[in-house]
């Protein structure tokens, strides 16, 4: 009898405990839910402010890119004009900049871009600058990433890089954003623009940029940062290039154009490249007539007025009729194109910094074997190369697929 009463009391006690505990768990769940909602609310609010800022900045965008009369009067890397951006990444501030640089002949030219830096105190000596080289977006001024509604969209890995404390300097390259000679796949001009974007960042007190530099680029940007690394000791000796990372770099232009001269990619890239080279290397006989068929010449102005990402379908529609009859010869086998492509291919000289090379095994534009040959060449120069071949990564996705390897490589080298 006593045992039954004891059991009933124990059961009642357990039920009582259960009843008491439920409100605690309920309150905890409500607290967690409220906290999550608050975080979501902050994220949504920050995103909304950034979008509103991006939209507001479009109103007077064209005026920023008009060069003043003294635009060319100053040293490479000095700022022509700058403006703080309203739509900025979380926990960061940013500027749009117009700055001076030089072309392959040493002539003063102007480039544009953006500088992004984390909020909060910088380390002693300032922040390491991550100089970013973007993949092909086109060659028209309107194709410049800094003119886009979201000017940060193509900085691949931006959030991770800001969280590491880098100031990011992202050039548009010469001839995009603002007036200047067409520099598409012109290695020296692209490399100079990358290095002078770092110098421009140093001109902005709020960017807290040091002379330590890490270079990171994808595709066309891979070629640009590789040339920046090669040229830095002579062109910008005050900068210390401490690491170079590239994803599917347009390193070997001879192979790139020869492999694709008879397909849709070759027509698109070739339309950009041959137009640029015919302007920059006119004194060396690089005429459009010497490499393109009459039908290809006819579509060139229209192709070069369009941006790659925004107008891909239109570009392919225009290009398709001349696929297979675009060039009069393989440009890698006829002069002056053979020499020009070789001169603008990376790997001409060694540089004193470790190199990370990421390549997607599903890339059909920059083919894996071409990148493997480039890696072997760089190692033959004595460069410390860390090569990553990533399964299922395409040309479009390789920079994102490579981010874990990039972060680990930066850690390994104390960057």
TrEMBL record:
Gene3D superfamilies: alpha/beta hydrolase (3.40.50.1820). The chain crosses the membrane at residues 28-49. The keyword Glycoprotein does not apply. The lineage of its organism: Bacteria, Bacillati, Actinomycetota, Actinomycetes, Micrococcales. It comes from the Bacteria. It comes from Microbacterium schleiferi. This is Lipase family protein. The keyword Transmembrane helix applies. Keywords: Membrane, Transmembrane, Transmembrane helix.
């Amino acid at each position: 009898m006593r045992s039954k009463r004891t059991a009933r009391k124990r059961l009642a006690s357990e039920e009582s405990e259960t009843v008491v505990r439920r409100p605690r768990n309920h309150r905890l769940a409500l607290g967690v839910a409220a906290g999550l909602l608050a975080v979501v609310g902050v994220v949504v609010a920050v995103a909304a402010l950034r979008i509103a800022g991006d939209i507001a900045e479009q109103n007077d965008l064209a005026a920023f890119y008009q060069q003043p009369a003294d635009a060319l009067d100053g040293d490479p890397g000095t700022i022509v004009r700058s403006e703080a951006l309203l739509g900025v990444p979380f926990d960061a501030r940013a500027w749009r900049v117009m700055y001076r640089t030089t072309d392959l002949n040493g002539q003063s030219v102007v480039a544009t871009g953006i500088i992004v830096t984390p909020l909060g105190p910088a380390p002693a000596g300032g922040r390491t600058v991550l100089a970013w080289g973007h993949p092909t977006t086109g060659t028209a001024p309107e194709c410049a990433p800094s003119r886009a509604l979201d000017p940060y969209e193509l900085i691949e890995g931006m959030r991770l890089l800001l969280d590491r404390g880098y100031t990011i300097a992202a050039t548009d390259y010469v001839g995009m954003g603002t007036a200047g000679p067409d520099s598409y796949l012109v290695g020296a001009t692209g490399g100079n623009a990358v290095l002078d974007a770092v110098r421009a960042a140093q001109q902005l007190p709020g960017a807290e940029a040091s002379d330590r530099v890490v270079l990171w680029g994808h595709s066309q940007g891979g070629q640009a940062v590789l040339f920046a690394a090669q040229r830095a000791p002579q062109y910008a000796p005050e900068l210390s290039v401490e690491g170079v990372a590239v994803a599917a770099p347009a390193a070997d232009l001879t192979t790139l154009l020869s492999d694709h001269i008879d397909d849709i990619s070759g027509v698109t890239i070739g339309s950009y490249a041959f137009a640029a080279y015919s302007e920059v290397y006119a004194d060396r006989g690089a005429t459009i007539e010497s490499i393109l068929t009459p039908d290809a010449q006819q579509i060139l102005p229209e192709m070069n007025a369009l941006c790659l990402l925004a107008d891909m379908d239109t570009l392919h529609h225009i290009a398709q009729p001349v696929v297979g009859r675009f060039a009069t010869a393989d440009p890698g086998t006829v002069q002056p194109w053979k020499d020009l492509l070789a001169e603008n291919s990376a790997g001409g000289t060694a540089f004193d910094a470790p190199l990370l090379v990421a390549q997607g095994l599903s890339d059909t534009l920059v083919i894996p074997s071409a990148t493997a040959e480039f890696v072997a060449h760089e190692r033959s120069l004595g460069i410390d190369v860390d090569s990553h071949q990533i399964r299922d990564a395409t040309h479009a996705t390789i920079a994102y697929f490579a981010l874990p390897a990039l972060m680990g490589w930066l850690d390994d080298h104390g960057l």
